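EI: anyone free to look at a 317-residue chain?
SC: sure, send it
EI:
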Amino acid sequence: MPPSDPSRPTDTHERDEGAERAPASGAFLPGTIHSRRFLATTVLPAVCALIVVVTVALAPGEQRAPILWSSLVAAASGFAATSIGVYGGVLVPGLLLLGIDARFVAAASLFLQVLVIPLGASAHARLGNIARHVAIPLIVGGVVGAFVGPACAAALPKESTARIVAGVIVLVGLLVLATLRFGGMAKPARLEDVSRSRIGAVGLVAGFASGVSGAGWGPIGVKCLLLLGIEPRQAIGSSLLGRVFMALSAVVGYLCSANALEAVRVEAWLLVPLFAGSLSTMVPGVFLVSRMQRERAVVLITLLSIALALPTLIRGQ
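SC: here you go
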């Protein structure tokens, strides 16, 4: 077989596909890649588990069970954040089921996102899953919506607000499934053909929902991006980057709203294990979404977010 001609032009589709899969920061030696993956998927979870064990050992007796269960909820939230784009949508209902104050849960969810999501976002960036065309307008809309959300949360009845957000999550999910069923999402759209103003509107609505309840950025934002025809891995990766700025804006909104956290019972013992649990599972989630088929990822994202929203929609908490 004759050797290939180095001057022969490379097929455009193959070149683009290879560039898309290449890490954003350039090529790495195989040994470096494997060592970083080992640190992120083995060493980091082990260190986080040790932090949880130490916290449980040092905590008062009545706090130990809530700390352990909260850490498991946080681990599931971290994995869901980077694999299907949902963090608060898992963390918030999980902590509410443990009887933790709803307003503390909302504020803690947003604060934790500022700390832990950058790890998942950077991992997605290395795999080329963040699209600037999507991320920039999403950030702009999300920052505005998330800053306004806490002020509205303090003025609205907690049960009504939770039901409204849950209802929107379910409605958007049903729209995604219907669109998928009737072939509207058979092929991904070209990013250049997706309106930036629509992406910004998605960020505005999802940021407001998350600012109000601590959840909604993923269940509403990612699913709306899917409806616009954006690839799941790009929708999840871009939304993770946007989530950092959205959550920071919401935290500032809570600090500026004098009565948003009035009479909130602060569960100080939970903050460290929630942080460690969330951090431990983020990188494995990134590898999962990069290997999933598009249609399967869309269905998984949608069904899980609907299932998590239904209890809140029915019971109002």
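EI: The longest helix spans residues 30-58.
SC: 👍
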